[in-house]
Specification:
Length: about 575
């Protein structure tokens, strides 16, 4: 419900705050006082379009802020969670509009896009202005209202799950068929590439290994020459390093016999001799293994040349070529087994479609049962509120699918026929109405009379009250074109409806105003040579006077006061 609405610098409103109550909130006031401005301001925090014209002249920006209690409103909770907006039992929704027409929106001080605010507003308030786009006039909402009224949530949820399952199976099947068709064209190419890659048989890291071996073979003469010179220098000459180190070691040993401080140096000389001996053994062994092999040299050069062209053709590296071979190998193998795989997925699709169709048939039958109950009830309520000759129908249609490839679409199948389907079933639901004798019912969206629309909405809301989850209903000028006698009936309907919803209604009829749980009067005055709109919450005595004024005009009489008390229920 809406706890409070704060409005600043908006149209004729300087600054005001309205504390709403539960039940039926009535707003009255003279024509032009600014009653509809309050509803327009509420529309602003619900995400409706904003313009700079709404900003009070001489101010920088208009600010409208609504405080809503959202306890039990699961849809709003889900939207807030998805937007990562923290909330408890209340949310504060704020809209700011600058003189330049720039608009900003906040929920609990978190900036939100206007589209997101609009989605949130659709789950907080149902606003019925004479010329507003009303939820019940949108045919796409009718199926949800019917399901809510019939308590079909579980069946609808089961259908959505089955619909999702069928779509998933169809997606896999279509992907496989698409691959099969694509592979038919590529099969010969893949066969050639597999043969070519297998003929080369590239190995990971092969180029690095071959290049290292090539470098050695190309420099084998130099390697042999240098290693032989090293061997001679280290060991096989008259003044070899090995022999010189032996002399050094012996002399250090003699010195250490005299002075023990030479002992570390003697050990170092032993280590140096060991290192030289190790190098000598290595170069001698290496030199003996050097292979002067021109055939192997040519073989490596040819292999590297072939691999160089090969890797350019298949991804720029041997690893990429090896990965590509693995990929096309799997697809080529799959191409050999497509029929079996497609047959298996086709069976899965058929099974999923059968399950979906069974749920769809049950859901459609339940909807038709619920539609009969709703139709009778709404006609009765319309008669009570002055539309006595109304005909109301809930049109449920099923459209067969006449296109191609029905087996590959998420359709319901009954017998041999396929039906157009959404995630809500294969029914299309639309409300039809006729309010005059002799006229056939036609789509509710085409009903033109503002007064009739409001009463039709009221009738539907009265019937759907227990199932419709929107916590707040707003009726702007619901009494347009109706008499006092009918007004009393409308007032009683609003009163009954307020047992299920918080209601805000603007009215000129005392018969409706008398039903209020909370009554506000809107007045316009002049402040500093400018018109300003004020809103006052009326006490019981003030309510009596306001309803009496609605009965008799500005000259309130004792009889009008008595009539007002009777309407309000004061003895």
């Amino acid at each position: 419900m809406l706890k409070s609405l704060s409005i600043k610098n908006y149209a004729l409103i300087d600054e005001l705050e309205i504390e709403f109550g539960t039940g039926l909130n009535i707003i009255t006031g003279e024509t032009g006082a600014g009653k509809s401005i309050i509803i327009d301001a509420l529309s602003l925090v619900l995400g409706e379009r904003a313009t700079s014209d709404e900003v009070r002249s001489g101010t920088e920006k208009a600010v409208v802020e609504g405080v809503f209690t959202i306890s039990g409103n699961r849809k709003v909770k889900r939207l807030l969670d998805a937007a990562e907006i923290e909330s408890d039992e209340e949310i504060i929704v704020r809209r700011e509009v600058s003189q330049k027409g720039q608009s900003r929106a906040f929920v609990n001080d978190t900036p939100v896009p206007i589209a997101q605010l609009k989605e949130l507003g659709d789950h907080l308030v149902d606003l019925h202005g004479q010329h507003e786009h009303q939820s019940l006039l949108r045919p796409e909402t009718h199926i949800d209202l019917l399901d809510d009224f019939g308590g079909l949530e579980t069946l609808v949820r089961n259908f959505k799950a089955a619909y999702s399952d069928l779509n998933r199976e169809l997606s896999e099947l279509k992907d496989l068929i698409s691959k099969r068709d694509a592979l038919k064209e590529k099969r010969e190419l893949y066969a050639f590439q597999i043969k070519e890659i297998d003929a080369i048989d590239p190995q990971p890291g092969e180029i690095d290994r071959l290049e290292a071996e090539l470098k050695i073979l190309e420099n084998s003469e130099k390697l042999f020459e240098v290693t032989m010179k090293l061997y001679e220098l280290l060991y096989d000459s008259e003044s070899s390093i090995h022999d010189q180190l032996v002399v050094v070691r012996n002399q250090l040993e003699d010195l250490s016999q005299i002075d023990k401080s030479f002992d570390p140096l003697k050990e170092e000389s032993e280590s140096a001799k060991a290192v030289v001996d190790e190098i000598t053994r290595f170069v001698q062994s290496y030199s003996s293994k050097i292979d002067f092999n021109p055939e192997r040299l040519e073989e490596i050069r040819e292999r590297l040349g072939a691999l160089s062209m090969f890797r350019k053709k298949y991804g720029g590296s041997l690893e990429a070529a090896i990965e590509y071979r693995e990929k096309i190998g799997k697809e080529f193998e799959l191409a050999e087994n497509f029929d079996e795989a497609i047959h298996k997925l086709g069976a899965n699709v058929a099974s999923a479609r059968t399950g979906l169709s069974e749920i769809a048939e049950r859901l459609s039958a339940k909807r038709r049962e619920v539609a009969e109950r709703v139709t009778r009830s709404i006609v009765g309520v319309l008669a009570e509120i002055g539309i006595e000759n109304a005909k109301f129908e809930i049109n449920i249609q099923n459209e067969t699918y006449s296109g191609e490839a029905a087996e590959l679409r998420p359709l319901v199948r009954l017998g041999k026929d396929f039906y157009e389907t959404t995630d809500k079933g294969f029914d299309s639901v639309e409300f039809f109405i006729s309010t005059n004798v002799g006229e056939e019912p036609r789509p509710l969206a085409k009903v033109a009379s503002g007064g009739e629309i409001s009463r039709i909405m009221l009738a539907m809301k009265t019937i759907l009250a227990k199932s419709d989850r929107l916590p707040l209903l707003v009726f702007d000028e619901i009494d347009v074109g109706i008499s006092g006698r009918i007004g009393a009936k409308v007032g009683r309907s609003l009163k009954n409806l307020s047992g299920y919803h918080q209601i805000i209604a603007i009215t000129h009829l005392p018969q409706i105003a008398g039903m209020a749980d909370v009554h506000f009067r809107v007045e316009k005055s002049v402040k500093g040579k400018r018109a300003v709109t004020h809103v006052a919450r009326l006490s019981e005595d003030e309510r009596v006077l306001e309803v009496a004024r609605l009965l008799s005009g500005e000259d309130v009489t004792q009889s009008s006061i008595s009539g007002a008390k009777e309407l309000i229920g004061i003895k």
